[in-house]
């Protein structure tokens, strides 16, 4: 039991990083991790010996994230999020982000949750296509197209942000 | 040699390490011959680097206490009633009466065998030991070189007058310490190391309503905890040492901690 808990504890930093890339707000991200840990501990017996704790925990967290996105969509809150989240939503003082980081975080938030999750899972968290497809519960082909479209969309969003920045500089 | 046509799809596969090894050379040739695709690939590499950089700092942030607490299992465990241990305080009192600290520890082996397995203090101490004793660079928050500050800081946080025991006679030097969550309150963890790199940790908390002591092993061949609880404080010594050696270290740590608390 203790070894399981220790393994879970060791995954928290990565769960937090994944949550932060899914949800911009730091507290909302930690809330997601908290929900994930609570569910994991209740289901400790479901964790098969030999199964990677990382894959198990990421799967639990992904389900929670999808549930949350569905609820948000029903309430219509996602549509209200401004495209340039950084301007409407001041980052907390301790969170010093470079312009590049802020732009990329904003761009990630502007993507559809499905593409965002697929891209982050592979590009940041380093899961293989097979692992990521299992965690997200989609066929490998779907995962690949989400990654390809996600990268393309991210590139376009970053280009837009760079153009807006250039215009603002010119206007000054 | 088999040749196939590559496409933009292969850029993603190459980037994500999914391109079969035997196709990589041909892929590089194709990429070199297609400047547009090469530029696309370079752009994706740059975007990925920016993505990783934007979130790299999260891994170094301290884990919020509320998240650690869940794993240490306070909330769910609390709803499960502790198995009755009416005999432990009586046994401990008897041991104390017989021979002070020496007698107290002499009884550990017998008590340990009968001790119920859900002692939270021991579980928390072992979980912390498993995590932090394995860390080379980030094992402690405050190093032994800053011992005075370490003792003052942990004493203030935990709410006990803590003196880091001198375990040199047992071959262990203080590495440093850190603050940890322990149920509703906080715990101090002091880490020691011998000249072979073997580590033991001392886990001290101010929260304890009952009197108990014993040994606790989480897994076969896993680290073992020698612990004691008294009114107002609890302590566990965790390590993967032979039982007799761990008990000797614990005995020394215990008497020094007691003396420190009383000073």
UniProtKB/TrEMBL annotation, chain A:
Domain PhyR sigma2, first and last residues per copy: 9-62
InterPro entries in the record: PhyR_sigma2, RNA_pol_sigma-70-like, RNA_pol_sigma-70_dom, RNA_pol_sigma70_r4_t2, RNA_pol_sigma_r2, RNA_pol_sigma_r3/r4-like, WH-like_DNA-bd_sf
GO molecular function terms attached to this record: DNA binding; sigma factor activity
GO biological process, alphabetically ordered: DNA-templated transcription initiation
Domain RNA polymerase sigma factor 70 region 4 type: 102-154
UniProt keywords, alphabetically: Sigma factor, Transcription, Transcription regulation
Gene3D superfamilies: 1.10.1740.10, Winged helix-like DNA-binding domain superfamily/Winged helix DNA-binding domain
NCBIfam families hit by this protein: sigma70-ECF
Family, as annotated: Belongs to the sigma-70 factor family. ECF subfamily.
Protein name per its UniProtKB record: RNA polymerase subunit sigma-70
Native source organism of the sequence: Mesorhizobium temperatum
